Structures are given as C-alpha cells and as structure tokens.
Amino acid sequence: MRRRLAVLAIVAAAGGCATTSGGLATADLVAGTNEPFYSMEVTGDRASLTGVDMSPRTLRISRRAAEGGGVLIDAADGAGTVRLLVRPQACTDDMSGAVFPLSATLSIAGRDHRGCARRLSRSAAARRRLTPARL
Question: Cα–Cα distances in Å, from 20 out to 13, 33, 53, 60, 86?
Fold first, then answer.
C-alpha cells in the first residue's frame, strides 16, 4: 500500500496521471534505459541521444503521434532513425529503484530497450533551447 501511494504521489508531483496521456504528444521528455545505458532527451523539434557505446547524437524529430495512450516519437540524423515510445505508466528503474511517472521503449538500430521517462521541467527545457550549441 505504501509503495502504491508513493507511486501516485510521484505521478501527481510530475503533473500527470498514470492512466492518461496528459499532453505527452507535445511535452519535453527525458527517457533512460539500463544495460545498455541510453538517454534520450526530447525538446521541441530536436532530440539528443547519448549512450556508453556511441558518440552523442543530435536528431531532428520527424513525427510525434499519439499511440497506445502515450506518444510515439520518431527522430533521425545521418546515422539513422531512433524511435521512442513513452506511456503514462509508472516505472521503477531496475538499477536504482527510483520510481518514474512514465515508461519508455527506445528503439535504436531495430533493437528495443526498455526504461523509464519523465517530463522535463519547463525551465530546464527552456535553458537547453537557449544554449549556444542548440541555436
């Protein structure tokens, strides 16, 4: 019971509901996976992808579509296409035990990697958009 209450408190604090998309189609997001570690940050029409076995990539978002109660994001660069599916389902990080309000599946080179996601705060997303490297 305590665990369920903790999950609900985290979801409420993140400004979303565990059972509805709550504007995910336009939200700035960050998703992460473990083993292998990947992180994808989606801000506006761009995404950045980092991982232990790759050089950092900056991708252009080609599609954001509602899917399965969440959002499907396709992004591409010269190295290929990456797909991120984010759903409004609570997720527990399998390494740290941290609870996130969203689950994620990140597809790179045809391989799916499951993980967790959260919305980026508006101020964090605004700061990232204004950095010289992103202008």
Answer: 15, 22, 34, 26, 12
User: What are phi and psi for residue 51, nearest 5 degrees?
Assistant: -165, 160
108 has pLDDT over 80 = yes
What domain count does the chain have?
Answer: 1
Spell out the SS3 assignment of 27-70: CCEEEEECCCCEEEEEECCEEEEEECCEEEEEEEEEEEEEECCE
Range of the domain at 46: 2-134
Residue-level pLDDT at 47: 97
Secondary structure letter of residue 120 according to DSSP: P
| pLDDT digit string, tens, across residues 55-94 | 999 999 999 999 888 999 999 999 999 999 999 999 999 9
